[in-house]
Amino acid sequence: MTMQTVPSLAVPEAFSHWLESRGLIYQLLVDFLGRKPSLSLVAQWSRNRKMSVAAEMTEGGRELKRYLSQEPNKLPYICEKETQEYKRLMHEQTVSSFKLREAAILGRAEDFCNVLAEVYTSAGIVFNKCNGEADDHIAIELEFMAVMHERMLYNSFSIRSAMELLDIQVAFLEDHLLQWTPQFCEKLNAATNSTLYLGLSHMLAEFLPLDLQMLRSWRASLESSATAMV
What we know:
Blueprint: H1 13-34, H2 39-46, H3 49-55, H4 59-68, H5 75-91, H6 102-106, H7 113-122, H8 138-154, H9 159-191, H10 195-229
Helix pairs in contact: 1-3, 1-8, 1-10, 3-4, 4-10, 8-9, 9-10
Keywords: Chaperone
Protein name: Molecular chaperone TorD family protein
Pfam family, one: Nitrate_red_del
């Protein structure tokens, strides 16, 4: 994901750390829940300086920071170990209760994906699904939030446009991600003892409710600013 360096909106200090970190957190979750942890991926995140700041927002983030911030000569071992765990979680029948799709977790019909497709289309987003993921796959839903974050923060030139994009994210968290990720995290916790995947699960469970709270607070701040300008 390519991001500009200067937001087009003035951001109050109370929200700046959260806004600077949330896109990174969503992208980290997308990367490790959407594909196997290759050596290049592990090395990329182990060297990411901004991750140190973002990790402090959740205990799960701190777990991941400690695990990935190891000496370079240890990264191949981490990669090999976690790649095997990824394959086990995603493909073995022994962990068939662990699902990565909203419809499967909530017992929805297969055509439930059409609901997500309409949400993405209405937001003007088309995903390049390299592995044929369904629209309700955890990585696709998290990627939607990452894209909307970037669009809101770096391509909004008015308070009104920012609030419209913010409202889409609030609705998506309330109607989709927070409806099923608590169960998803419980199932992942029960299915693995991997430091990587437990850290991801803990981060996801902690961060999404916090993100919703902060989105609502920032919306109230923007609304107050808009009212003051009238």
